């Protein structure tokens, strides 16, 4: 019953996105990417993996590296397609439909490996914890500061992979500074009041 509900959930929101992309004239960004109802299948993929991990833990333990490898391959495909479409056009049927499905499933396939590695490695736990506490800052700065800055660098004909490195490093550094010098002091003030 739970599994069929999860699968139905994924199918429903995937279908809505496909229907919108095929039968309506919508833009990739404003008509699909930024519309929550067309992206809700991503939650379903995460819930599906969580369900599999819970009910088939032995299977996941045996195949977590295969899932990681498959997830990384799909994620690389997603990044390559997105990078190419950034240079050409995002307004393709593939980008409006399958690109989201590939990205969602690739990230879901990474979760089991991270779940088990995090529970066994103190350094990884610290790293993941630090990323999680700075994630709100990452959310705030990546679109407002980092991407506009990268677009200026893109004009300098830097290879696309260096732009990704620059994007991630810049986002992390700015987020760490915001967390350290703004979020954490403000959070400490909350305890006083």
Number of strands: 0
The proportion of strand residues reads under 5%
Spans where pLDDT lies below 50 across 5 or more residues: none
Number of domains: 2
The overall average pLDDT, rounded, is: 88
Question: What would you call the quaternary organization?
Answer: single chain
Helicity range: over 70%
Q: Rounded to an integer, what's the Rg over CA atoms?
A: 19 Å
The coarse silhouette is globular
The number of distinct helices, counting runs of at least 4 residues, comes to: 8
The major beta sheet can be summarized as: none
Q: Structural class given helices, strands, pairing?
A: mainly alpha
Amino-to-carboxy terminus distance: 47 Å
The helix/strand series, from N terminus to C terminus, equals HHHHHHHH
Word description of this protein:
With 193 residues, the protein is mainly α. It folds into 2 domains: 111 residues, no CATH class; 73 residues, no CATH class. Helices cover 87% and strands 0% of the residues. The protein contains 8 helices and no strands. The longest helix is centred in the last third of the chain and has 33 residues. It is globular. It starts with a helix and ends with a helix. The model has no long low-confidence stretch (mean pLDDT 88).
Question: What's a quick, concise take on this entry?
Answer:
The chain is mostly helical and 193 residues long. It has helices at residues 2-23, 28-33, 41-55, 57-87, 93-96, 98-120, 122-154, 160-192. The longest helix has 33 residues, at 122-154.
Provide the descriptors you would attach to this structure in a database record.
globular; 2 domains; mainly alpha; 193 residues
């Amino acid at each position: 019953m739970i599994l069929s509900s999860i699968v139905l959930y994924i199918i429903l929101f995937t279908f809505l996105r496909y229907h919108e992309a095929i039968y309506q004239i919508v833009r990739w960004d404003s008509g699909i990417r930024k519309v929550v109802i067309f992206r809700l299948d991503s939650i379903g993929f995460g819930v599906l993996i969580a369900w599999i991990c819970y009910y088939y833990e032995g299977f996941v333990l045996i195949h977590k590296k295969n899932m990681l490898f498959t997830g990384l391959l799909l994620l690389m495909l997603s990044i390559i397609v997105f990078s190419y479409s950034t240079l050409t056009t995002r307004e393709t049927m593939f980008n409006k439909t399958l690109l989201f499905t590939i990205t969602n499933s690739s990230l879901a396939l990474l979760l089991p490996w991270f779940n088990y590695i995090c529970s066994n490695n103190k350094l990884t736990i610290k790293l993941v914890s630090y990323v999680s506490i700075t994630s709100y800052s990452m959310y705030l700065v990546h679109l407002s500061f980092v991407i506009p800055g990268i677009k200026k660098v893109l004009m300098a004909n830097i290879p696309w992979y260096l732009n990704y490195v620059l994007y991630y490093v810049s986002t992390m550094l700015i987020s760490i500074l915001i967390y350290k010098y703004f979020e954490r002091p403000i959070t400490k003030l909350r305890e006083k009041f």
